[in-house]
Amino acid sequence: MAEIVLVEATSHSPFLFMEPHQWNKVRAARPPLTDNPVMSEEENAAQHKRCMDAFEVLRQKMEEAKPDVILVFGDDQQELFGLDNFPAFGIFVGDEFEGYRTSARTGFIPGEQRGWREKTPETWVKVQNNPQLAQELAVGLTHRDFDISFSFEVPNKEHGMGHAFMRPFTRIVPDFDIPMIPFFVNCYFGPQPSANRCYRLGKAVREVIEASPLDLRVAVLGSGGLWHTPGSPTSWLNTEFDERLLSYIPKGDGKGMADEFDREGSTPPADYGPATSRWVDGGTGMYTGIGSGTGETRNWVAAAGVADGKPGVVIDYVPVFASPCGMGFAYWEM
Hints:
Structural class: alpha/beta
Helix content: 25-40%
Strand content: 15-25%
Low-confidence stretches: none
Shape: globular
Radius of gyration: 18 Å
Largest sheet: 8 strands, mixed
Distance between the termini: 15 Å
Number of helices: 9
Mean pLDDT: 95
Number of strands: 12
């Protein structure tokens, strides 16, 4: 019988994959704001170290758990899917896939040439899936009233699997030698599923895995978040929101986390409109809750749903104002 041996959650911001001395070069592109202070080089270096130390804990926990496969809840930002047909929930059920280890493009840092990264062993990697379990999940979740999209092939092979799935492995499974099941959750573009729907999804995923006859040790990873509004010229960091959400992890209360997220997003922000839609609902104009980067926190909620009832550990929460993004790292031992 399959068993879930570990659940983890992590941010995947590009700031976690660049050197801290580069942070303020990116920060300089935005105006100084009272609620988004400019940090010193020393402060940035200290924050970077905290994030790398937290990643090391996640790596060690994953190594100790010895999973045969890792299911990753992540979102897609039109890397594989377009707005001509965007799935709410989807699973990759093919044998293998390829993708960039961290990001497909150069030019994030001012002065760097914008373009596609060259595909080399240092930047591009092939990853095995576990199609048997992936397909069991697709069937089992459908039986549990989740309408699941599925893909046997990567829709955009030139780009490869999206950053929400690839980046965390770079720090947690750096050799990419454990099979991964990519599970797509629409976090970014309205209308998205509610956090409570994602919580119920996590619980259903656990049911399907634990009912599987496959002899597998399974880990689960929620990728993305926490609070950030990429692209907004007035980005700010809602640390109170992040800390309220994280407070439910030591309690093992996935439902509480979902309720907190949905309460925060129950009404659009006061300035919501065509000028702000991009970093509120991904630019679709269809609001059903927090979208854009902060919306990725749904992947944490889905992971918390898998671990529901088990007290978890918040390794660290680092408010990186240079981004600005709330960097969170947590795990649940099952």
